[in-house]
Amino acid sequence: MxxxxxxxxxxxxxxxxxxxLSADDPKWIExxxxxxxxxxxxxxxxxxxxxxxxxxxxxxxxHLEGLGTAQNFDKALLWTRLSAEQGYADAQHNLGVMYRExxxxxxxxxxxxxxxxLSAEQGYVLAQSSLGNLYLNGQGVAQDLEQALKWTKLAAxxxxxxxxxxxxxxxxxxxxxxxxxxxxxxxxxxxxxxGLAEAQFNLxxxxxxxxxxxxxxxTAIKWYTMAARQGxxxxxxxxxxxxxxxxxxxQDFDTAVKWAKLAAEQGDASxxxxxxLIYGEAEGGSQDxxxxxxxxxxxxxxxxxxAVKNLDYTKSLLSASELKEAKKLxxxxxxxxxxxx
Length: 341
Description:
Number of strands: 0
Distance between the termini: 26 Å
Helix content: 55-70%
Shape: globular
Number of helices: 18
Order of helices and strands: HHHHHHHHHHHHHHHHHH
Strand content: under 5%
Structural class: mainly alpha
């Protein structure tokens, strides 16, 4: 169940990030607010070509997101870099993101680190959070837990949810700080209450295990559910497990299937294996060996060894016609990208 960190901050800064506008800026802002992105791009281009860092930054975002123009990572990179080289913190952060994700440029964690650092040193909170994460994981720079703590704490204190969750993870593991589940709980709560799925999941884990707080399965399930509803795959798997086993709540086969399916539909091999188990081991009329075979075949294709073993055993239980039907179900499910199977 352990998963503590949001591995990287890959969230682009929003448009309209700075109040310092030139006399020409209101034209594109008015168009943007009206949803007339085509006009906004036209006006932005005129101002950006005159050297406005603010306009260059926003034009880069428009190209990156495909607003008012076809999505074009090369142009996004061009305008973002021009703005960043003028010292515009928002653009420096976004340029770091582009290097981190490989959008319009080859992936380069060292370059991402350099641009994050320039932005972070100007006080830009997203960059501070991102920089702390690189120091924490030793990506693009040698791992430095002291620096990771410094930048993550700065961002967390300013309300950055990912930084708050990551700071919770550092306290839970004792990375750069004295280990403290209670302090981890505090930081997870801050981010979880504002809706960050990773923090909700980690908070659920603490309640489930009784770390830093009295063990409480119902509270754990509450936080798992919040994370799962946002598509957090491990939270979905955990919910399926507790509903299937009846741990802390009444056993519920249908709800176990529901959450396992949502995780399996995301292509998670262990979820697909677990869903096969639920179908294969169910008692009475709920058992469905055809669907068990189908989900195990997907998991096996991804290298899940137990699924391979279960497939071989299930073949011995199915007739030739049933095996043919199971394979047909799998083919149809693949065409739907695992959805609605």
